[in-house]
Amino acid sequence: MEHMSVPHFLGVLVVMLGAAKLGGALAKAVGQPSVLGELVAGVFLGASVLGLVDPKVEAIHLLAELGVVILLFAIGLETDLTKLLKVGGASAAVAVAGVVLPFAMGYGVCRVMGLPNLAAIMAGATLTATSVGITARVLSDLGRLQEPESQVVLGAAVIDDIVGLIILTVVVGLTRGESVTPGGVAMTTGIAFGFLVAILVLGSFVVPPLFRLAGRIDLPGTATILAVMLAFGLAWLADRAGSALIIGAFAAGILLARTPQAHEVEKGVTVLGHFFVPLFFISVGAAVDVRVFNPLDSANHQTLLLGGLLIAVAVASKFAAGYAPFWFKGKKSVIGVGMIPRGEVGLIFAQMGLASGVLDAGLFGAVTLMVMVTTFIAPPLLKALFPAKHPGQPPAEPEGIENLVSMP
Q: I need a labelling partner for 95 at 20 to 30 A (CA). Which of 34, 223, 321, 408 fits?
């Protein structure tokens, strides 16, 4: 990770926040979710265009990670665990199909294109990812976060993240020459899912009395600070347990959603989100290198061909996964589209493949193209399939997180 001076860092923050607000405003002006504008702004600020923002710089990377943790914490605050459990079977079906189909199809395409077995496995693993942050923000922007379809997507995306981590653990082991055993995979799976279940069960006994006690402290902001401490603490615990930071933050939000201080915490977290969350999406956009997509450069032709095939597979497989719960009565097309964006999760997979030497520059470029296209097409498609609620038709429950996507 690179370092920068404090004045330089402050200047970069000004550019990132200004570009995020401008991009979000322009996107909303043309009828698109503001997150799409933030992603586009990030691409322009990245090294391959203006070169003003480098997401590899340690300070920017840390702020972006804080942004996604706060975003998932806010989403957890807006998630009704009862509703989530009601669609648990549908979410599980979508998640399983959303892992098996992309992996199998992605692996097959790469092998047909003549890629080595390990590279094909890594590319297939990258296709299994789902960016819950991007989809959740779009659904919230549309006032649809409480709809059954949204709950299915949210549950499936969380399961996908856990399964994706398991796959990534296995693939990284393969790149190191380690043998993969059924027992090892089972242990990794048990730890990942067991952490989430344990936190939700134990937290339901510990968190409410803790916040009742905190309510006796007559200091402004006490509940919000305690809530953020819980979110960061559980995110850290999740990482130490071999799970993902965002899983811990999401669990913290769910636990706090039923406390009397939930509304106060929601307001405080929204204020934090106005600063940190746009930095995350700017960083995701800045990680895209558009130079590998230049069709005039003959060296990029193979990359573009493979990238096009991976895009087709990535979109078709996740969309088909939305129809896996045949018993679900909602709009399955919305679920399928909601699972399409790979976003930062796909980029993390791709970066690890490149760093380990499994993906060469060409395959990394093809995977990056897939990640970028799937991330960018999902917001407008969701908006078309799931129009925003009419102003006279308020959401069933207040969605404070929508303040993180709505422009003033």
A: 34
Q: Is 96:87 a contact under the CB 8 Å cutoff?
A: no
For residue 350, what are its two tokens?
Answer: 């791709």
Nearest residue to 367 via CA among 110, 186, 42, 152: 110
3-state secondary structure of 388: coil
Phi first, then psi: give them for residue 203, nearest 5 degrees: -65, -30
CA dihedral over 381, 382, 387, 388, signed as positive or negative: negative
User: Could you tell me the domains of the chain?
Assistant: 64-404 (1.20.1530.20)
Query: Dihedral of the CA atoms 286, 38, 345, 74 (nearest 10)?
Result: 140
Q: Are 127 and 341 in contact (CB under 8 A)?
A: no
Cβ-based neighbour number of residue 397 at 10 Å? 12
Contact residues for 216 (Cβ-Cβ < 8 A; gap 6+): none
| Amino acid (one-letter) located at 121 | I
Cα gap 1→277, rounded to integer Å: 21
Task: Convert the pLDDT of each residue in 377-404 to its tens digit.
Answer: 888 888 888 776 654 444 444 444 444 5
Q: For 227-306, list the strands marked E by DSSP.
A: none
The answer to whether the CB of 123 falls within 8 A of the CB of 343 is no
DSSP string of 280-303?
HHHHHHHT--GGGG-TTSGGGHHH
pLDDT in tens, 248-298: 888 888 888 777 777 778 888 888 888 888 888 888 778 777 777 777 766
**370 Rama sector, left if φ>0, alpha if ψ -120 to 50, beta otherwise:** alpha
